[in-house]
């Protein structure tokens, strides 16, 4: 037989179960998939699940919202569902956002068509039920629209002369996720080779120090992300500084020679004109 103490414990435990558990039951909203990825121009469907604390009667509102680019701005409504199957889509998403709710499965689907990079952001699903506003009333997920890198632009900054320091930059204007760049170099014979000593490479910027004739060759940059890649290349010709000085001197010498010749021509013309006038007077 049960002792008086055991009977008291069991009675207390049963009372606790009957009184506490109903109070702990509350609304639960969740999005099973924490992030979505889709190629640019494709369609995507995001799913939100909800479990009400009690049967839904008259009022039930489910809303999908988009987080802004600026954290200080408020979220923007994508679409709202009401219990009478009425769906209201925001004007900015009209024609390409579709909202469905299955009350039997306790599930909502937001479908976006022909997504662009502007759709890369977090989306939130929230549920409003009168007298059932405790628990988890909203959940969010992230959408990443994949865009291959645009053809990168390669440029040289600095003087391509012996013993100078230069930087070679490579950047794609578009790409989602953000492209990762990598440089490779080839000799003038088009053979792969290592970079010169002290070379650094970061965020598409290749820094070359104390360049020389051996630095001359081909440089290829590849811009890559999860969906594709693109590249650009350039030819580096390192020359002695004296060659540039000689070229400058040659240009200046040519200009001076032209001025001298022009002065001689003018002088000759003036003398001839003076002689003709003298002959006419005689």
Automatic annotation (TrEMBL):
Keywords from the named record: Membrane, Signal, Transmembrane, Transmembrane helix
Keyword Secreted tagged: no
GO cellular component: plasma membrane
TM segment ranges: 249-270
Domain Ig-like: 22-142, 151-237
Pfam families with a match to the protein in the record: Ig_3 (PF13927), V-set (PF07686)
Span of the signal peptide: 1-26
Domain of life: Eukaryota
Keyword flag Signal: yes
Protein name: A33 antigen Glycoprotein
């Amino acid at each position: 037989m049960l002792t008086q103490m055991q009977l008291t414990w069991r009675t207390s435990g049963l009372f606790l179960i009957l009184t506490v558990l109903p109070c702990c039951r509350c609304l639960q909203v969740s999005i099973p998939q924490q992030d979505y990825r889709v190629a640019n121009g494709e369609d995507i469907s995001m799913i939100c699940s909800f479990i009400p604390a009690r049967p839904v009667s008259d009022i039930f509102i489910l809303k999908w919202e988009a987080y802004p680019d600026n954290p200080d701005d408020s979220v923007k409504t994508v679409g709202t569902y009401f219990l009478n199957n009425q769906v209201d889509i925001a004007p900015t998403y009209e024609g390409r956002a579709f909202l469905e709710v299955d009350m039997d499965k306790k599930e909502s689907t937001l479908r976006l068509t022909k997504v662009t990079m502007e759709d890369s952001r977090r989306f939130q699903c929230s549920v409003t039920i009168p007298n059932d506003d405790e628990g988890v009333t909203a959940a969010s997920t992230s959408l990443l629209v994949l865009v291959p890198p645009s053809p990168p632009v390669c440029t040289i900054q600095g003087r391509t002369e012996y013993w100078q320091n230069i930087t070679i930059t490579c950047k794609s204007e578009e790409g989602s996720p953000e492209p990762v760049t990598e440089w490779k170099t080839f000799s003038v014979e088009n053979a792969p080779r290592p970079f010169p000593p002290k070379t650094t490479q970061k965020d598409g910027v290749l820094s070359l120090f104390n360049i020389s004739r051996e630095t001359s060759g081909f440089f290829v940059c590849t811009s890559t992300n999860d969906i594709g890649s693109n590249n650009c290349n350039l030819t580096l010709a390192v020359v002695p500084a004296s060659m540039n000085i000689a070229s400058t001197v040659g240009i200046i010498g040519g200009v001076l020679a032209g001025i001298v010749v022009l002065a001689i021509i003018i002088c000759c013309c003036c003398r001839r004109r003076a002689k003709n006038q003298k002959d006419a007077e005689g």
